[in-house]
Specification:
The complex is a heterodimer of chains A (166) and B (250).
Chain A lengths: L6 E2 L1 H7 L3 E2 L2 E5 L6 E7 L2 E6 L8 H15 L3 E6 L12 H10 L1 E2 L4 H8 L16 E5 L7 E6 L5 E5 L4
Chain B lengths: L1 H23 L8 H29 L5 H6 L10 H4 L5 H22 L5 H29 L3 H14 L11 H8 L10 H14 L22 H9 L1 H5 L6
Classes of the chains: A alpha/beta (166), B mainly alpha (250).
Chain lengths: 166, 250
């Protein structure tokens, strides 16, 4: 959506792609839409990241991981946390969504569908294991603040659903 | 101006801090695994929002202040949270009622705060509002489920509502710092939120087959730093590490 606003130097992009979200190791922080900018200024890499949720404990780890990744490539990096504009699940890239599904996390639906699904009104969340839509909400809050907990009524597997955040 | 701004932020952020702490007490003690996880996730959101506010306060204060000194090294009278959020987790009915009565207010407050002339406060509000929407949905659902549930759940949630109702009026009181910040276009005039608040709360209570209390006597004091007897116990636990091992870090 606002991806065109992101400024990431190509050379830095490749390094940032190696840093993953510690809660979802298959997803790089770039695919997650957490990196808002990365620039090389006077020999120092300046990275801006934005939290998914205010209390996300992964943010401190992500900041440290970014610094370490750049250090390994011989750069000194400075990481700033910015709050505006606020992160939205729309910033998860399509590659990121595929990675989520493969990892067993159902990716976020549109805002209105998300509401229906979380109120338990309609069966709209697809089981990432067997693809069935015959799933039920177990809990609006799952293993982390960004996820809800679902169960598939066909293959019976429990799974996480990444909640829509707009 | 800076001191008014800091006091104004305390008035907002201390609510999230103390409610976050109260909900944190339920970690591992929720009535079911799902509610346990939900309440502690809400706690995490609130504490995350508190961190953003306190990092900002620390910057305004300067002199080596940081989010931890702001959170842990104040005295009881210096906390400006409302009495509602410090009320104990008597049972799940009380915890969820306290949450519901606060969430409806919190959401309305943030909707206005996003328009603040203070860019930092506006940014925090825009970020937080997305989380608070989920909180409000969660607590409203439970009010309906318990109110329109069994006779036992109905009676118990009604008792919690009757008991906590006396703390709702304080949400709409103004401090001098509030007034100064409203004049600057930074603060939200909470008195304007009152009518819609009670309308919204009553309509959900009605849906839940519950009675809206008609109490005329309300408690106040938290916003001035005059807290209920519960506050000292909360702070004892909250500040324990910093008081016992000053300046410790993780």
């Amino acid at each position: 959506m606002t991806e065109e606003k992101i400024h990431i130097d190509q050379k830095l992009f490749e390094i940032l792609e190696t840093v993953s979200d510690p809660e979802i190791p298959v997803l790089s922080i770039v695919e997650m839409g957490v990196v808002r900018s990365a620039k090389l200024i006077n020999g120092i890499v300046e990275v801006e990241i934005t939290p998914t949720y205010s209390g996300c404990p992964a943010m401190d780890v992500i900041g440290d991981d970014i610094k370490e990744a750049f250090q390994q490539k011989g750069y000194e990096a400075k990481v700033d946390l910015i709050l505006s504009p606020a992160w939205t699940t729309d910033w998860i890239t399509s590659k990121g969504r595929i990675a989520l599904e493969k990892y067993g996390i159902a990716s976020p639906l549109s805002e209105s569908a998300d509401k229906e699904a979380l109120l338990g009104n309609k069966k709209l969340v697809k089981c990432p294991q067997c693809g069935s839509l015959n799933t039920k909400l177990v809990s609006q809050f799952g293993s982390t603040a960004c996820k809800a907990f679902f169960q598939c009524e066909d293959c019976l597997e429990p799974f996480d659903y990444f909640k829509c955040l707009k | 101006m800076n001191n008014n701004l800091i006091q104004y932020i305390y008035g907002i952020a201390d609510n999230s801090l103390i409610l976050g702490q109260r909900l944190g007490e339920l970690c591992g003690h929720g009535p079911s695994i799902e509610t346990d996880i939900a309440l502690t996730n809400i706690s995490l959101d609130l504490l995350g929002q508190t961190r953003s506010y306190f990092q900002y306060v620390a910057k305004l204060q300067g002199n080596g202040a940081n989010e931890d000194t702001v959170a842990f090294l104040r005295l009881e009278r210096e906390y400006k949270n409302v009495l509602l959020v410090e009320q104990p987790n008597t049972d799940f009915g009380y915890s969820i009622t306290r949450q519901f009565l606060f969430d409806v207010f919190h959401l309305a407050l943030l909707e206005e705060l996003q328009k603040s002339k203070d860019e930092m406060l506006a940014a925090i509000a825009k970020k937080s509002i997305k989380e608070v929407l989920y909180h409000t949905r969660f607590s409203s659902d439970w009010i309906k489920r318990l109110g329109d549930g069994t006779e036992e759940s109905h009676n118990r949630i009604q008792t919690a509502i009757n008991d906590l109702w006396i703390f709702t009026d304080e949400l709409f009181h103004q401090t001098d710092a509030d007034k100064a910040m409203i004049a600057e276009g930074i603060g939200v005039d909470v008195t304007l939120l009152k009518i819609n608040y009670y309308k919204k709360v009553s309509s959900i209570l009605e849906e839940a087959t519950l009675q809206t209390p008609s109490i005329e006597y309300f408690q106040k004091g938290g916003k001035q730093g005059v807290h209920s007897e519960h506050m000292g116990f909360i702070l004892t636990e909250l500040q324990y590490m910093q008081r016992t091992y000053p300046n410790m870090t993780w």
